[in-house]
Design goal:
With 447 residues, the chain is α/β, with parallel strands linked by helices. It has 3 domains: 5-130, Response regulator (Rossmann fold, 3-Layer(aba) Sandwich); 147-311, Rossmann fold (3-Layer(aba) Sandwich); 391-447, Arc Repressor Mutant, subunit A, CATH 1.10.10. Helix content is 47%, strand content 13%. The protein is built from 18 helices and 14 strands. It is globular and about 95 Å long. The two termini are 48 Å apart. The relative contact order is 0.07.
């Protein structure tokens, strides 16, 4: 475990020595500064985890040191050392970002406790920063050079900082979730929650509870109060993925939230307020859903303020090299491998493939190749069978009749499963067959 380095800045020699001895006895590494100028030089060249800072120093006071640290974005915990009669200054220093203050002289046990708490807070802040950066990297939007994607990013970039509701269309696997997260990161709400809800996964009652929360005893199993997504996401963003699958009852409640910014928990009487930015996504044609009575027309117009449609991967083959490079870097990093190169013949094969699963399928193909690679290059033998690089409509000529029929069925079934995110119940409904029969087909065709 790394030893924390503490900088003690005080013009009193005896105080510096006393604090140094106490902290070194508890396993900390110590640096000393006798004035503000020396302190700033150390902060700018060395890695310091925490500082004990005297307020009353000649030439450059502790308050001035704090202000300079803020100006230069030096972000470490600072514990103020203050003599009697300067408590007001100590409080003022905390407004400038100081963690806490200690009186002179301070009790040894109390000093160690405050130092430990300050370092724990620093550790949590660094962990949160790392997790946030990891999350941002996970949801990184790779645009490429296609005109269609540039138009999508141009539109979303213009409205990202507003509260305007955005509807994202496109096939499954085209990156709707990535775009929603990118919009959140470009907005003024980026430091507030980004809450994603998959509208296909829960029953109507559970979806209502998930979105709006419930009171204790509202239904069987509601053993305690639960906050919903809209309550949790206050001041942030709610992303409703596959909004076209919401039931009519939930659609009505959602419309009320959009129009008035208020809702009630399940089983609750009180009205709660929320301020969220709404981003919705669907692979369905919502206008068709409205015409057929499955989606509310008034809700459609409220969520369709700004509409963008993500192109399928087969519509942007020129972006495949950018995406491949991104996935190679991502998966090599995750597997702690040196970055792999990729043969031009492999890239050409990837460009020719129909990609029914879009970017999600491409990411899985590259992850598999990286995992199986034993040398420094991705070769054709590392790719899974890509259905002969054909679309459903393009089964290659020259195959025996039964083989061609089987190939067509395999390709079509793969596309349906990709479109429904491998949800067999939804796929069976789309195919108008029983789910048990679909499951048998998947096994028989070795999909």
């Amino acid at each position: 475990m790394a030893v924390s380095t503490i900088l003690i800045t005080d013009d009193d020699f005896q105080i510096r020595m006393l604090l140094r001895d106490r902290l070194e006895a508890n396993g900390y590494q110590i640096q000393l500064a006798e004035n503000g100028q020396e302190c700033m030089k150390i902060l700018e060249k060395d890695s310091i985890d925490l500082m004990l800072l005297d307020l009353q120093m000649p030439e450059m006071s502790g308050m001035t040191v704090l202000k300079k640290m803020r100006e230069r974005s030096i972000d470490i915990p600072v514990i103020i050392l203050t003599a009697h009669g300067s408590i007001e200054q100590a409080v003022e220093s905390m407004k400038l970002g100081a963690f806490d203050f200690l009186p002179k002289p301070c009790k040894p046990d109390h000093l160690i406790i405050v130092v430990q708490k300050a370092l724990e807070k620093k550790g949590l802040q660094e962990e949160n920063r790392f997790l946030r950066e990891s999350l941002d990297s996970q949801y990184q939007m790779i645009v490429g050079e296609s005109e269609a994607m540039k138009q999508v990013m141009d539109i979303t970039g213009k409205v990202a900082r507003s509260k305007t509701t955005i509807l994202i269309g496109g096939e499954s696997g085209t990156g709707k979730q990535l775009l929603a997260h990118a919009i959140h990161q470009m907005s003024d709400r980026k430091n507030r929650p980004f809450i994603q809800v998959n509208c296909t996964t829960l029953s109507e009652q559970l979806m209502e509870s998930d979105l709006f929360g419930h009171e204790k005893g509202a239904f069987t199993g509601a053993v305690k109060l639960k906050k919903g997504r809209f309550e949790t996401a206050d001041q942030g963003t709610v992303f409703l993925d596959e909004i076209g699958d919401l039931s009519p009852a939930i659609q009505a409640k959602l419309l009320h939230v959009i129009e008035y910014g208020e809702f009630q928990r399940v089983g609750g009487m009180g009205t709660l307020k929320t301020d969220v930015r709404l981003i919705c996504a669907t692979h369905k044609n919502l206008q068709q859903e409205v015409r057929e009575g499955r989606f509310r027309e008034d809700l459609f117009y409220r969520i369709n303020v700004v509409s963008v449609v993500l192109p399928s991967l087969r519509e942007r083959p020129g972006d495949i090299p950018f995406l491949v490079n991104h996935f190679i870097e991502k998966h090599c990093g995750a597997m702690q491998k040196e970055k792999l190169s990729i043969k031009e013949t492999v890239l050409n094969a990837l460009k020719k493939y129909h990609w029914p699963g879009n970017i999600r399928e491409l990411g899985n193909v590259i992850e598999r190749a990286v995992a199986l690679a034993n040398n420094s290059e991705i070769t054709m033998d590392l790719l899974p069978p890509l259905s002969g690089d054909t679309s459903v409509q393009e089964v290659e000529a020259g195959l025996p009749w039964e083989t061609a029929i089987l190939r067509f069925k395999q390709n079509y079934l793969r596309q349906v499963l990709e479109r429904t995110d491998h949800n067999q119940t939804k796929a069976a409904k789309l195919l108008e067959i029983q789910r048990t029969y679909l499951n048998r087909l998947i096994k028989e065709m070795e999909i």
